[in-house]
Amino acid sequence: MTIQKKNLDIKSMFSIHRIIIPAFMLIMVTFVPAIQAYEKGDILLRGGYTNIATQSSNGTTVNVGDKGNLTAAVSYFISNQWSTEILLGLPFEHDIYLKTGEKIGTGKAPSTHDFTPKAL
Question: Which of 13, 54, 89, 106 could cysteine-pair with 64, CB 3.0–4.6 Å?
């Protein structure tokens, strides 16, 4: 009895591998092209979701809410190793709240640039 039981376990193990290996190969074929080497003249399109988590130091007066939106990037390879990229995105509108929780408005955050060594 125990010999037959071991044989059944081995058979079921082989049948599981018949499912897992093709599934793994399908996943690799689907996602590995993103790791390909690109050549001069190639164009790469990427999309995603970006969340802007605001950090406010306004004391106890105002709070600015977080916001997420769709973003994209278009890259053009000027050589096999270098590319230029343009970032695209829908505008981010943040809700502005008083510390009491009352919403006082919605607006676009202004552009900010931080060129300090700490930011690099």
Answer: 54
